[in-house]
User: Fold these one by one.
Assistant:
Number 1:
Amino acid sequence: MEEKNYTGAVPDNYRGESITAQSVRKFGDTSAAKTFFEESALRLIDVNHWHELAAKPLGRFLISDVVGNPLNQTAREGLLIKIDIPGPASSSGKGYDWVRIEEVSKLASDEVDSIAIRVRPVVAPGSSDKAPAHFYDEKSTSTFTLTRENTVITAAIYDRNIDSNTAIKSQVDKLRNAIIGFAGKHLFSKIQWQLLVDGLLK
């Protein structure tokens, strides 16, 4: 699959593994494609409702401020996303996995429109741990993109440099992250992300 990295938000993969999920929709004319892109872009930044887009949601994503308070707003750089996934919970994250939105970027032209949201695992708010409260480590990223190329719209998610987080202090979390991290790389992320990109283009 060709990488849609018009905003430059998707990093090169230099270690670990990579996962790509992609969905494509074609329109009869540019005007219809632009209108649909604008509608889908609003769905992309509305993280709190991602679970409603997937036919079979496997996780719940909630925007939070830097101290972990839930927010009823769209994605913005610096905010956190609290993730509730099936299976054993993270004790260091008080039952959740946490990522920080480190970039929201856009590109607009007559031929191409694109928006990207890149997130990275972080330490849970209020935690004294140095390692992230997430089953992936701090060098792993996920970039959520929506791109219009003339009459073609592509929703894609790029997991890059992913590796299990085994640096956490808790032995229980270390085992949990090894198991969930392996499942994430080989099953969860592929399924969850494909459901999400398909949902974005409904």
Number 2:
Amino acid sequence: MIHRPTYRQMVRHLRAEAHAGRMLPFVIEYQGRLAGQLTVAGITWGSMCSGHVGYWVDEAVAGRGVMPTAVALAVDHCFRTVGLHRIEVCIRPENGPSRRVVEKLGFREEGLRPRYLHIDGGWRDHLVYVLTAEEVPEGLLARWHRVRPNASQK
């Protein structure tokens, strides 16, 4: 049986990992209220200099560009301030909305990781999407703003 931490234990763990330099947890606010969460985790230094991003967003704000903007901001922070070189996002193949986030931002699909994470009682396959610092010399947020459809046209 998998032990599920309490909310307080989860926050304590996030803080400890952040303090150790292995994780960057972010809260996402939209119009003054909690709208989601994004974490850069698995930060590895040395010759790898990478991390992976996980996120969720409140369905009430989905489709408004909140998550692509948050991912772009976090990736820019990782590349420009933290000094990482590579960011991965692993997404279940059936999760179309999450896949659209990284596809909108221009992440490359690198392949499938079979039975990668234990979710909902079983080992689930995940698609791997990747971006390296060289692929966005102008920054990911700048690229997202350049390609994003005008919100007023929706």
